[in-house]
Write a structure and sequence with these properties.
By secondary structure, this protein is α+β, with helices and mostly antiparallel strands. It is 52% helix and 9% strand. The two termini are 20 Å apart. Glutathione binds next to helix 1 and helix 3.
Length: 209
C-alpha cells in the first residue's frame, strides 16, 4: 500500500489519478497546506521542498521503502514501477517525457501564478501580475490545442500516458485560471475523453482534503 501525502490541488490530483489508473492500492494522508502542515518536520523528511504531493512506497526498489517528492518524479517512478502509461520504446519515451516536462516547467507554474494574482487586492500590482501570467497561460493552452489536433492523447496513441495525467491536473482548474474551452475544441474533446475514464474520474473523486 503506497502512502500518498497530498491535498486537493492540481499537483495533488495528478497522483491520485495515476494511482487509480495504475490500479495501485494507496492510502491518502492529507497535508493541509492552508494550515502550514507542509512545514512539519515529519513531512519535510520526505518532501524537503515543503510541497505536496509526496509518496512513500514500502515496496520500493530492492524491496526496501522509498519516498519520492515532486509530482513529475512521482509519475515517472510509478510508471517505471508498474510498466504502465510510459511507452517502452525510446522515441515514445522521449515524447512522454517532453510533454511531462512541458507541464512541470510551464503548464502549472503559469496558471498557479494566475491563481495567486486573482487572490490579491485590486490594483496595479494585481493587474500586472494577472495580465502577464494569464497571457502566458493562454499561450500554453494554445500550444496544447495545436498538439491535440488529430490526436486522442498528448504524447501517445491508443491510451494515455503520465503526461496526460500531469496536464489534466491543471486543466481541471481551467475555470479558476479563467481559460474557457470555447476556442479550444481539441483541448475540450481531450478533457472530456480523459474525464470519461472511470479510473481518472475516481482520481478526482477521492477525498484529498
Ligand atoms: N513542482 C512541484 C510543485 C508542488 C506544489 O507547488 N504544491 C503546492 C500545492 S499544488 C504546495 O504544496 N504548496 C505549499 C506551499 O507553497 O507551501 C510538484 O509538481 O510537485
Amino acid at each position: 500500500m503506497i502512502d500518498l501525502y497530498t491535498w486537493n490541488t492540481p499537483n495533488g490530483r495528478k497522483i491520485s489519478v495515476a494511482l487509480e489508473e495504475m490500479g495501485l492500492p494507496y492510502k491518502v494522508h492529507t497535508v493541509n497546506i492552508s494550515k502550514n502542515e507542509q512545514f512539519e518536520p515529519a513531512f519535510l523528511a520526505i518532501s524537503p521542498n515543503n510541497r505536496i504531493p509526496a509518496i512513500v512506497d514500502p515496496d520500493g526498489p530492492g524491496g526496501a521503502p522509498i519516498s519520492v517528492f515532486e509530482s513529475g518524479a512521482i509519475l515517472l517512478y510509478l510508471a517505471e514501477k508498474t510498466g504502465k502509461f510510459m511507452p517502452a520504446d525510446p522515441r515514445g519515451k522521449v515524447a512522454v517525457t517532453e510533454w511531462l516536462m512541458w507541464q512541470m516547467g510551464g503548464f502549472g507554474p503559469m496558471p498557479g501564478q494566475v491563481h495567486h494574482f486573482l487572490m490579491q487586492p485590486e490594483g496595479p500590482a494585481r493587474d500586472y501580475g494577472f495580465k502577464r501570467y494569464h497571457t502566458e497561460t493562454k499561450r500554453l493552452y494554445g500550444v496544447l490545442e495545436k498538439r491535440l489536433a488529430g490526436r486522442d492523447f498528448v504524447a501517445t496513441e491508443g491510451e494515455p500516458s503520465i503526461a496526460d495525467f500531469a496536464i489534466l491536473g491543471w486543466a481541471w482548474r481551467h475555470e479558476r485560471h479563467e481559460v474557457p474551452f470555447g476556442d479550444l475544441p481539441n483541448v475540450a474533446a481531450w478533457y472530456a475523453r480523459m474525464m470519461a475514464r472511470p479510473a481518472t474520474a475516481r482520481g478526482f473523486e477521492v477525498a484529498l482534503s
